[in-house]
Amino acid sequence: MEKLDRGTVAVRGRDGTLVSWRSLATDAPGLAFNVYRDGKKLNGEPVATSTNYVDTAGGAGSYEVREVVNGAEGAASKALAIDGFLTVPLQRPAGGKTADGKEYTYNANDASVADLDGDGQYEIVLKWDPSESKDNCCAGFTGNVLLDAYRLDGTLLWRVDLGRNIRAGAHYTQFQVADYDGDGKAELIVKTADGTRDGAGRIIGDAGANWVSGSGEIEQSDRTGSRLTDDGKLMAGFMGRIVKGPEYLSVFEGATGRVLDTIPYPSKRGEDGDNPGADALKARWGDGYANRSDRHLAGTAWLDGKHPSAIFARGYYARTTIAAVDFAGGKLRQRWYFDSEAAGVPQGYSGQGNHQLSVADLDGDGRHEILYGAMALDDDGKPLWTTGMGHGDAMHVGDLDPTRPGLEKWGVHENMQMAQNRGAAMVDARTGEVLWSTPATKDTGRGATGDIDPRFPGAEAWSAASPNLFDVKGNVIASTRPAQMNFMMWWDGDLQRELLDGTKVSKWNWQSGSADVLLDAQGTASNNGTKSNPALSADLFGDWREEVIWRAADNNSLRIYSTSIPTTHKLTTLMHDPQYRAAIAWQNTAYNQPPWPSYYIGEGMPK
Matching CDD domains, A to Z (predicted)? Predict the structure, then answer.
């Protein structure tokens, strides 16, 4: 559990200034608060039943909250002022030219947060994505991927340049940030290669090595990204791909960006090393041009219930390998390794992965398991279950049905043969039992869930496979569903979850069957093309409601939006829930998905 400060914010709104602060899991029972503006106490009785206060006369001024224990004031927390949004200035990197002369610029892309310097406040780790980044299906050179660390005032702490031997694209770089060694300061763990430069300017591996393919083609069966020849062959180009050369996993000090340790990447691309031929690559992963073998996922999991481990995975269309790595005593060490094609692994674990993973305590033993699309691994890396329904583009894992014990998973599926024409399914996350599903005849690319209708207990669910809205038991409750099937977030004052899509936050109006816009963040931009993701959505500060980070349209800053709407509900900061905290670590992975806590938040939740 992170040692966080109160994270007090003062957000100006139409009805005054909302002052809100964190309720921490370590707070003593009965703890209350006084709220001050410019040294003057605003409340009468200490605030005890919520962690927010509206100053209706609020305007310019300095706010703080003070803890009250047995009638005596204690620690004070000064509020961060937010007027509309908090601007975090960025040092946008200069663009450049690829190896074949194409110009590119940099866009602020996915982000994560952690306390990098041990002061109890979050810093932001941001990925810079070159405009010439590529999907795995397509050949072509890219610019370098960069990772920056910023304080909330825009101070740049460091920049890591992953170098030319890490290709840019949504499926290549998945970065994890957490306090892995328990020293109170977070580290960054990420896949690296020859030429990666750390935050202190040190080069990892061979600075002069160039493992980027310059030319060549290979015949294959994938249509997307291929060239069709006159005689009907599909050819995939090698240009810009990296199919040879050493691969590393490195850990960087959060405060400085200095590399602390580097080991060989746990999952090698080749059976016997880093340099397989095309035939060997195809035999191992399903193709010979690194489309499938360079599909990487990552996460952070508390596998022993006490210490975080980094999870790095490779492959999901066919072979799947997943490694858990610990960082202690200044060294990275492999905890366990799973290979879906290894001897002794039951059939049905290959080809089950999604474009993302999830981490949760599926069996109630206090230790995290890995939910990898349509299959799950136990905390020791052993197979737990597989539905056999195959790959999908989206999934949500949480206590979606509070009337059932444990957690549920709502996910969509792509391969109708493997899924047996089930486009979306609600699954018992402990056993893999399919509770109910919706039919489909083709890839169901989108789906979402959340408590958006207070008339029905639990989370509602919907997907692109059906025009209907379902309750958590699979009953049709409306013939109209939200068009938004992306992120979910808690924004307003009730317990229903709102719809986050593109640069808008909307609330489902169950009476009209439409979505009402609550926030339209003009001047910002979403990420990852049609995925329309924010840089990050998380409970960053203030009370338990969630913030959202978007990049400014000019990429010169990030904007953090926090609600100005009061709430009567008092919840512990979501970041002190292990499942939710793990979700913020993995949120940047490939096709980003929203975070879920380990318990139910919604209409009828226990007080």
Answer: RGL11
